[in-house]
Design a protein that fits this description.
Length: 310
């Protein structure tokens, strides 16, 4: 029994620990009505199966290049452990959307621990229906009876302590002698979803503005500060400019990438940014190409969490 403690549940996407789990990840993701916005479950599941069949082998090749697993699970685990060391008032748990540990198992554990008050913190700084809403809806939908009270954080991109962590990481990557183009790289989203009212793009623009102002106040100068979108999947129109098009502007120049959609490193940072786009940057004649780390379980981010949940 955890006397007087509340539960803090970090929500994240999950990721593959092996090829079977990649199949599970993709199957659960493409059956999510927030991702494939097709109303009929049956039709969505046929399309999901088709996409998974087509995508699995080629996607797995990417995971083979980062040690046969996504880093998202061990890094989220580390963050949970550090929260449990440093945040007294809460017992911290994690629940993933597409791979274990799923919400129902976590709820069982919270019940066993004798806790009834739950605060959900989706590990997405900007709100999107495809991430935040999907995770919160899934968690709340798994609550088996009325004995729990649940609150959730919708977004935290305006949190000053969080933004200090991002700025510190960017500064850590700068060599004072050189001039850089800073690119905030966000995970993309189909334009159709934004047109239906998803606030992700608007919040992303605002987040970049807040961070640019903070860098300027600290007198950190860049040749340019930009926002671009990575990770397009399928034939639909996604948010623009794409990271690939953005990089074309920087032949013979230096580039620093900050992965602005993520809290812990994952396959999109370790493979896509650090391997795939690094090769593209090299082919485009970019001089220096650096990728910042996400905030992960840094002391600064733990302080930011305390501030976000207070
Ligand atoms: C097809 C639609 C997708 C939408 C919409 C989407 C939104 C979205 N995703 C993230 C964060 C992550 N996505 C990750 C992997 C990933 N995403 C998609 C598709 C969509 N994402 C796929 C198919 C995959 C798997 C990899 C691949 O096959 O390309 C991950 C990485 C998980 C890991 O394994 O480490 C993250 C994190 C955000 C923030 C977002 C919208 C705001
Ligand atoms: Fe994604
Ligand atoms: Fe990707």
């Amino acid at each position: 029994m955890q006397k007087n403690k509340k539960a803090l549940v970090l929500l994240n996407m999950g990721g593959a620990r092996n090829k079977d789990e990649l199949k599970m990840f993709l199957t659960n993701m493409f059956n999510d009505e927030n991702i494939l916005t097709i109303n009929m479950d049956f039709l969505r599941s046929i399309i999901a199966n088709f996409i998974v069949k087509k995508r699995l082998d080629s996607a797995w090749e990417n995971y083979e290049k980062i040690g046969n697993a996504s880093p998202i699970n061990p890094l989220t685990e580390k963050l949970v452990n550090k929260c449990n060391e440093k945040i007294e008032e809460f017992k911290t748990y994690q629940a993933m959307r597409y791979t274990p540990p799923f919400a129902n198992e976590v709820l069982e554990q919270i019940k066993k621990d004798g806790i009834s008050e739950i605060l959900l913190l989706p590990l997405y700084p900007q709100f999107s229906t495809t991430t935040t809403k999907s995770s919160v809806q899934d968690f709340i939908g798994n609550i088996p009876y009325e004995g729990f009270t649940v609150k959730y954080i919708e977004e935290f991109y305006k949190n000053d302590k969080f933004n200090d962590c991002i700025v510190d990481e960017i500064i850590r990557n700068i060599d004072d002698e050189k001039e850089y183009n800073l690119v905030f790289s966000a995970h993309g989203l189909p334009q159709k979803i934004v047109k239906k009212g998803d606030p992700y793009e608007e919040q992303m623009n605002e987040h970049v503005e807040i961070l640019s102002k903070k860098l300027d106040e600290k007198k950190i100068k860049f040749k340019s500060i930009n926002l671009a979108y990575q990770s397009k999947v399928g034939p639909m129109k996604w948010l623009e400019p794409s990271l690939e098009d953005m990089l074309k502007n920087f032949k013979d120049e230096n580039v620093i990438i900050y992965p602005i959609s993520f809290i812990v490193d994952n396959s999109e940072t370790d493979f896509e940014l650090d391997i795939e786009y690094r090769e593209i940057a090299h082919e485009l004649g970019i001089k220096e190409y650096k990728v910042c780390r996400c905030v992960n379980d840094s002391d600064g981010f733990i302080e930011a969490i305390k501030d976000i949940i207070k």
